[in-house]
Specification:
alpha+beta, 5 helices, globular
C-alpha cells in the first residue's frame, strides 16, 4: 500500500540512484546525513569527509541528480536534505526483484 509521501521512480531515476549508491563515498555521505537527521550543511559534510571541495561538489551533484538529496542556498552556504521517500521508493522497487 502506498503512503501519501511515496513516489514512483522512472527507470532513469532508478538507474541514477543505483549509480550514485555504487560509489562508496556517496554512500558514506548518505549514511552520515541519515544518522544526522537528514539535514546537513555542505561545510559539515566537508568536515567529516576528507575530500576537496570540488570532489564533494561533484558527489553532491550526483546525489542531487539521482533525486536522493535536495539543496537549498542560504547566502553563500548550501544546505542539503536527504529525500527519504526516494530511498524508500528505490528499496521498494529492489524488493520486487
Amino acid at each position: 500500500m502506498a503512503t501519501k509521501n511515496s513516489i514512483s521512480l522512472t527507470d532513469r531515476q532508478f538507474h541514477l540512484i543505483t549509480r550514485a549508491l555504487a560509489d562508496p563515498r556517496r554512500f558514506e555521505i548518505l549514511e552520515r546525513m541519515g544518522r544526522g537527521g537528514g539535514h546537513c550543511a555542505c561545510g559539515d559534510i566537508r568536515d567529516c569527509i576528507p575530500v576537496t571541495a570540488a570532489t564533494l561538489s561533484h558527489h553532491m551533484k550526483e546525489l542531487e541528480n539521482a533525486g536522493l538529496v535536495e539543496s537549498s542556498r542560504d547566502g553563500k552556504f548550501v544546505n542539503y536534505t536527504l529525500r527519504r521517500e526516494a530511498l524508500e521508493a528505490y528499496m521498494a522497487r529492489l524488493s520486487k526483484i
